[in-house]
Specification:
elongated; 2 strands; mainly alpha; 68% helix; two-stranded antiparallel sheet; 2 domains; Arc Repressor Mutant, subunit A
Length: 149
């Protein structure tokens, strides 16, 4: 599935989740594209069994399309959290995550997901994250107790 198809599928899923169906114009607005290009993509996604499209009636998402869209949105959410951990600003974290989500292998993504889960498991920021952020800002290692070898 192409990056463009994935973006359309996510947009359709979000719209359908809110109101039960999507219209071409809503999809075009969500993606910042012309309505004519939406129609072509809807036909492709329908041929793949990911949506149900009836001209002038709207778009529904199939269970397979919903499964894929949810997976893509989950990946994006985890990647955004990952980049935020390292101090990347929200808007930039979203842009980077959008690109990375399309190309990252499952095994690599799973490691990132585990890392985010690990960091999230702390009720407060772990000291090493605070130290890392200080290092990012100053370029110097903060004073801390170091483990001696």
């Amino acid at each position: 599935m192409s990056e463009k198809e994935e973006d359309y599928l996510k947009a359709i899923y979000k719209i359908v989740s809110k109101r039960g169906f999507a219209r071409s114009i809503e999809i075009a607005e969500a993606l910042g594209v012309k309505p004519a290009s939406v129609t072509d993509m809807l036909k492709k996604l329908q041929d793949k069994g990911l949506i149900i499209y009836e001209k002038y009636r709207g778009v529904l998402i199939t269970s397979e399309g919903e499964k894929i869209a949810k997976k893509l949105l989950h990946r994006a959410e985890i990647l955004i959290k990952f980049f935020r951990i390292f101090g990347v600003q929200d808007d930039n974290a979203e842009k980077i995550a959008h690109h990375v989500e399309h190309y990252i292998e499952d095994s690599s993504f799973q490691k990132i997901e585990k890392f985010v889960e690990f960091v999230d498991s702390f009720s407060e920021n772990p000291r090493w994250i605070e130290h890392f952020r200080t290092f990012i800002e100053t370029g110097k290692l903060p004073e801390c107790d170091r483990i001696k070898k």
